[in-house]
Each structure stands twice: as structure tokens, then as C-alpha cells.
């Protein structure tokens, strides 16, 4: 969406981009590296729950961020930082610095991906910001160049730019696209609380203390086949997340939510990334909608029926 907004005498151009949240359909985590990060083998799936970022130019070099009233994924406003640590501010400043842009931008974020939920919402915000500001400022970076900037902001940012489905190795940012033609259908079930990703990784290291943990080098080929075939029955028993035990150790109610989801009819239920959002696999779109109705009175934010893969960050 490239619109024109009147602000007194001035006419400002606003550019809006959106980027999807993700589910890790398969997630293996290795031992901690010397830099504190972990090597992973991840099968990422971009799903149809989007963040939107509207970028409006400023005459000075300031970069501001605010949440719009249409945001549905904010439990407490203070969960969303409004200072320089916000990933959208960091993304805009990084792009400006690397391309020599001297003017600033006001960024309005519409959040639908649960904050600190394990679906990469902050990364999606950063990806949408890079795409919106690249268009606003006419900086002309390619998607690959934006991906290079994105990996400086966070391991999940390159995938939020790329979208679709992808195997992620390294810290998750060495992406190989997976060609999936048919969607699978899911319900994402946010929790009424957040989990800090670094704390979940530390809890995993503590649970594995004394064990010899191998560095993962690939995603189980059977999972890839089932996702490519869009075969939910084959996929259900193959979903895996090494972080699940750590997330549940920090939030035991998450374990109960997963068990209940399966007794409510989900084909399988996994922790999404570091949690605490749960990803429930459905047979098809109608089954996903039915699960949302059944889960309607759970505490926390509303459940959403989603499908994936969907496109990565794009202008709207
Ligand atoms: P991931 O799945 O990539 O580990 P997540 O989805 O669990 O991440 P996010 O919502 O991306 O978690 O953000 C985690 C923390 O980052 C928040 O608690 C918040 O303090 C900080 N943060 C910085 N920028 C943002 C942003 N734009 N949106 C949400 N949180 C942000």
C-alpha cells in the first residue's frame, strides 16, 4: 500500500509492508557454541499470521515506533519496547546507516504474532521494516542484501524475509528453500504469558548437563517429504522440537495445553520455537476452524487458524 496522508500543509508518503510469523515444524538444537549461540537444524514454515509495519518519512533523522490500535497480539503494552532496542527501530537505523540515508522514519506496527511467543514476531517486524524502508527511501537493496542485513538483527529475520518453507542450519540463518506446493493447516494457540528465548535455551542446556549432544546437520528427510506432500497424517508423528522439554519445564501449563489440544482432536500439538505458543496440526482448513471454536474459551489471546507456506515480507 503506497498512500498519501495529509498532515497540515505537508504531504507524507506512507509505505506499508507485512511479514509472516513462523512455526518450526522440526527443530533440533545442538550444544552451546563459544559465542553462546546454538547450532540448529530447523524446518521453518511461514504461516498466515502477519505483522504489518507502516513507514512514514520524517524530515529529521529520528526513528520512532508505535503500536497501532488494530494490534491483536499485545497482552500488556509494556511488553512492546518503544525505545532504540525495538527491532523495527534497529532495522530502520541499520538500513539507513548502510545505505547513507540521512532522514528518519515513523514506524507504526500492527502486531498479530504473540509477543515472546516463539513465532518470530519481532523478527517479522524487522523484516517488514527492512522491506518498507527500502521502498520508502528508494535504497534499492535486493532481497538477498536485505537478508544479509537481517541476519545482523536476529537469526530468524532472514526467514521472515524469505517466507515459504526452508531448512535453516547454522544458527537458523543458513537457509535452503523447500518447495512446498500445497498448504498444511494449523491452529496457533497463544498463551497468556511469554517465555524469554535465551532463558529457554539455557534451560535446555541445564536439562542436558553432562550429556554428549551432537551438532545437528540436517532435518529428518521423512519430515520434509511429509510437508512437501502436504500429508498431515504422515506429518503428525514426525513433528519435533528439542526445546519443548525446556519450555514446559519453565511453564508446566504449556504441557497441559498440548495434551488437551490432542484430546480436543488436533492431529498433533507442538511448542512453536521456544514457546509458549502451541502449534496444532489440523487435517484441513475446516478442521482448523473447528479446533479454533473448540478452543475458544482457553485463557490467553485468541487461537488462530492459519496455513503455510505463505510469502515472506512484501509490500502491501
Ligand atoms: P523468536 O521466536 O524469534 O525467539 P519470539 O517470537 O519468542 O522470538 P519476540 O516477540 O520476537 O519473541 O520478541 C522477544 C522480545 O524481544 C520481547 O519480549 C521484547 O522485549 C523484544 N522486542 C524487541 N523488538 C520487538 C518487537 N518489534 N516486537 C516484539 N518484541 C520485541
Automatic annotation (TrEMBL):
One of its GO terms (molecular function) is 4-(cytidine 5'-diphospho)-2-C-methyl-D-erythritol kinase activity. Belongs to the GHMP kinase family. IspE subfamily. The keyword Signal does not apply. Pathway: Isoprenoid biosynthesis; isopentenyl diphosphate biosynthesis via DXP pathway; isopentenyl diphosphate from 1-deoxy-D-xylulose 5-phosphate: step 3/6. ATP binds at residues 114-124. Residues 86-164 form the GHMP kinase N-terminal domain. It comes from the Bacteria. Residues 224-295 form the GHMP kinase C-terminal domain. Catalyzes the phosphorylation of the position 2 hydroxy group of 4-diphosphocytidyl-2C-methyl-D-erythritol. PANTHER family: 4-DIPHOSPHOCYTIDYL-2-C-METHYL-D-ERYTHRITOL KINASE, CHLOROPLASTIC (PTHR43527:SF2). This is 4-diphosphocytidyl-2-C-methyl-D-erythritol kinase. It catalyses: 4-CDP-2-C-methyl-D-erythritol + ATP = 4-CDP-2-C-methyl-D-erythritol 2-phosphate + ADP + H(+). One of its GO terms (biological process) is isopentenyl diphosphate biosynthetic process, methylerythritol 4-phosphate pathway. The keyword Transferase applies. The active site is at residues 22, 156.
Amino acid at each position: 500500500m503506497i498512500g498519501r496522508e495529509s498532515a497540515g500543509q505537508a504531504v507524507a508518503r506512507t509505505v506499508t509492508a507485512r511479514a509472516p510469523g513462523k512455526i518450526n515444524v522440526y527443530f533440533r538444537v545442538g550444544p552451546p557454541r563459544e559465542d553462546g549461540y546454538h547450532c540448529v537444524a530447523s524446518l521453518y514454515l511461514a504461516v498466515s499470521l502477519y505483522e504489518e509495519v507502516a513507514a512514514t518519512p520524517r524530515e529529521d533523522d529520528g526513528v520512532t515506533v508505535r503500536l497501532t490500535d488494530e494490534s491483536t497480539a499485545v497482552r500488556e503494552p509494556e511488553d512492546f519496547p518503544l525505545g532504540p532496542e525495538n527491532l523495527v527501530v534497529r532495522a530502520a537505523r541499520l538500513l539507513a546507516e548502510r545505505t547513507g540515508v540521512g532522514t528518519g522514519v515513523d514506524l507504526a506496527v500492527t502486531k498479530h504474532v504473540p509477543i515472546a511467543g516463539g513465532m518470530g514476531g519481532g523478527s517479522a517486524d524487522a523484516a517488514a521494516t527492512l522491506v518498507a524502508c527500502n521502498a520508502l527511501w528508494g535504497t534499492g537493496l535486493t532481497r538477498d542484501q536485505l537478508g544479509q542485513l537481517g541476519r545482523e538483527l536476529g537469526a530468524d529475520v532472514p526467514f521472515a524475509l524469505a517466507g515459504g518453507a526452508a531448512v535453516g542450519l547454522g544458527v537458523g540463518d543458513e537457509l535452503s528453500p523447500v518447495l512446498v506446493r500445497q498448504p498444511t493447516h494449523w491452529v496457533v494457540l497463544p498463551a497468556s504469558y511469554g517465555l524469554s528465548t535465551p532463558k529457554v535455551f539455557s534451560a535446555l542446556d541445564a536439562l542436558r548437563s553432562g550429556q554428549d549432544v551432537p551438532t545437528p546437520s540436517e532435518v529428518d528427510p521423512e519430515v520434509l517429504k511429509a510437508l512437501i506432500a502436504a500429508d498431515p497424517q504422515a506429518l503428525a508423528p514426525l513433528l519435533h522440537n528439542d526445546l519443548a522439554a525446556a519450555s514446559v519445564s519453565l511453564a508446566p501449563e504449556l504441557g497441559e495445553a498440548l495434551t488437551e489440544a490432542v484430546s480436543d482432536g488436533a492431529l498433533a500439538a507442538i511448542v512453536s520455537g521456544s514457546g509458549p505458543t502451541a502449534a496444532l496440526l489440523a487435517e484441513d482448513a475446516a478442521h482448523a476452524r473447528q479446533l479454533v471454536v473448540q478452543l475458544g474459551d482457553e485463557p490467553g489471546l485468541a487461537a488462530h487458524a492459519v496455513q503455510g507456506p505463505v510469502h515472506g515480507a512484501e509490500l502491501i
